[in-house]
Specification:
By secondary structure, the protein is α/β, with parallel strands linked by helices. The chain has helices at about 5, 30-40, 50-55, 105-120, 140-155, 175-180, 195-200, 210-220, 245-250, 280-295, 305-315, 360-370, 385-390, and strands spanning about 5-10, 15-20, 25-30, 75-80, 85-90, 105, 125-135, 160-165, 185-190, 200-205, 230-235, 255-260, 330-335, 340, 350-355, 360. Strands 4, 6, 7, 8, 9, 11, 12, 13, 14, 15 and 16 form an 11-stranded mixed sheet that branches.
Length: about 400
């Protein structure tokens, strides 16, 4: 491994530090020592003292360079509606169709998916069931049915179950809001900014404002009893402009946190961040982070989720060889009952790993995990922060 991929010298307002990629460990060091080590690292030399901290064998390391064995299944997402009532210019899922015809998951497939999850999971473990689309509430009855079924089945088998749901919030009813508040739900609402910004990205039929409809849905979720956690995820493009005013707009809606995801790939014609324009996105994110830091130092919360997640992972020393559980402890179930590595990869045969009838295909999962280990990816393997992010999204 390259020297600069193993260690990095960081200078801050409070001192000079050594960051080790393996274990995401942070040490305070003397400034003069840092100068010498920085020079060595820039020349591709790993100082002996740093090498000793890391260890000389694979057994010494926190993260093995080899792939993990396919773990037990602990969470699933159910693509209950491969259809959507909105049209978003950047949608990776072709309005939820994933390149095929619109389809809704049946009750029998959803229940079998829950049963298979319980059978695969370690005894007494915590389970997570997410509802995805398209727009999940296109198939509203199934969400209500499966939530009740999974709650009873998990309790009967000695498991604890939590739920997650990603929605555009335009179809929510009072009964839906009651369901999301009564059960342990983490709800993510897709909203891309103020009225002008959002409606440029995301549109409804009949010239309705998608932004206004989303706000109606958020009011339903915040008017009385709330979901366990309510967040906003904004997808931003080079057209978005300044991000800090959008964060302030989101926080005024009463959500628990909000954050941004950049468009780096999209259907033809939609603007995506290039290597050059991504610098502008980084500057906007830094501005949001600086504001969050200022508020936190004044003991006022500013729930910018990207910033809070990064701080939490550095504080804990998060170190992982994969970006998420895709293809490992997590699977997405298509409307037809097939397993895929991720909800973004539904109906992609390269990322299919069995189905709910015959079970998971261990050999294909093992091959996937071997290829997607961050130390096997370029240019990730030469990055000092690779174990903080795990290598990015699990895509081709």
């Amino acid at each position: 491994m390259e020297a600069r991929a193993e260690a990095r010298i960081i200078r801050s307002r409070v001192g000079t530090h050594l960051f080790l990629a393996d274990g995401s460990r942070l040490f305070d060091i003397d400034g003069d020592v840092a100068d010498v080590w920085s020079s060595d690292l820039n020349r591709g030399i790993l100082p002996a003292e740093i090498s000793e901290l890391i260890g000389n064998t694979a057994d010494d390391r926190f993260i093995s360079p080899g792939p993990i064995a396919p773990p037990a299944l602990r969470s699933i997402s159910l693509n209950v509606a491969q259809a959507c009532n909105m049209s978003c210019g950047y949608c990776y899922a072709d309005r939820g169709h994933f390149g095929g015809r619109p389809s809704l998951m049946s009750g029998s497939i959803a229940r079998m998916s829950v049963d298979r999850l319980i059978a695969e999971a370690p005894p007494g473990s915590d389970l997570v069931i997410a509802f995805m689309g398209g727009e999940p509430f296109v198939n509203r009855p199934l969400i209500h049915e499966v939530t009740a079924y999974a709650t009873g089945a998990a309790q009967a088998s000695g498991h604890r179950v939590r739920f997650a749901l990603t929605t555009n919030a335009t179809l929510l009813t009072p009964d839906d809001a009651a369901l999301l508040a009564h059960h342990p739900f983490s709800v993510t609402v897709s909203l891309d900014g103020d009225r002008e910004t959002n409606d440029r990205h995301r549109s409804l039929r009949r010239a309705q404002s998608a932004h206004d409809r989303v706000l109606d849905g958020i009011r339903l979720l915040t008017a009385g009893d709330r979901p366990r956690h309510l967040s906003i995820r904004a997808t931003v493009s080079p057209l978005t402009g300044r991000l800090l005013p959008l964060l302030e707009h989101f926080f005024s809606l009463g959500v628990d946190d909000a954050g941004f995801a950049p468009v780096v790939s999209a259907p033809a014609g939609f603007p995506v961040y290039s290597e050059e324009s991504f610098v502008d996105f980084q500057a906007e994110m830094i501005a949001c982070g600086e504001r969050a830091k200022t508020e936190l130092l004044a003991r006022r919360r500013f729930p910018f989720s990207n910033f809070e997640t990064a701080l939490s992972e550095i504080h804990r020393g998060t170190h992982r060889p994969y970006p998420c559980g895709a293809g490992a402890g997590y699977m997405s179930v298509s409307s037809k009952g097939d397993y895929f590595a991720c909800h973004r990869l539904v109906d992609d045969p390269d990322f299919q790993f069995g189905n709910i009838v015959n079970g998971l295909e261990s050999d294909r999962r093992a091959s996937h995990l071997a290829k997607k280990h961050v130390d096997q990816q370029e240019p990730c393997r030469s990055c000092w922060a690779r174990y903080l992010c795990g290598g990015g999204a699990t895509t081709k």
